[in-house]
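ok so i was messing around last nite and threw this chain in just to see what happens. nothing serious, just curious
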Amino acid sequence: MKIHIKYMVSLRCKIAVKEELDKLKLKQTSIELGEVNLKKDISGDERELLRKGLLKKGLELIDDKKSLLIEKTKTTIIELIHYSEKYPKVNYSDYISEKLDYNYNHLASLFSEINGTTIANYIILNKIERVKELLLYDELSLTEISLLMEYSSVAHLSHQFKKITGLTPTYFKKIKKHKKRIMLEEL
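result:
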């Protein structure tokens, strides 16, 4: 049985889900971002206990198809931007559409309707969070980060970074010890 979980975007979330499943003695075959494959179907009572446990950890079970599709879209974007070594050579809309096997215009319309923002804006927010992370690691130059994140130039990255954060990447790097990052779940 497959269950889908909203806001499950990090390793920490996967650990939290595993803890809840273990509390209820629910065996799983896999835990991935946004979904869990259970070895057997669960009862209504088990589902309700799991729902309550996940809510305490800031996670939610997904029951309707629209929400499920939106979460799959978010998970695809997060996996691509935060966990991929290389970004695809196709544009994001083609990648998302192909990965989810849905028409991109349908996905974009649904995403905007439910989240009040566009997929493109969600991608930019995630890219900027990834840039912040890379700046904090202090292992790559701004030019290297710009290339890694598929920006056309350092100027383009800097402009987008300042538009989102209000700071230049260089200034952000200087004050990095005092700046609180936004959690992926809050984007």
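not much to say yet. The mean pLDDT is 89.
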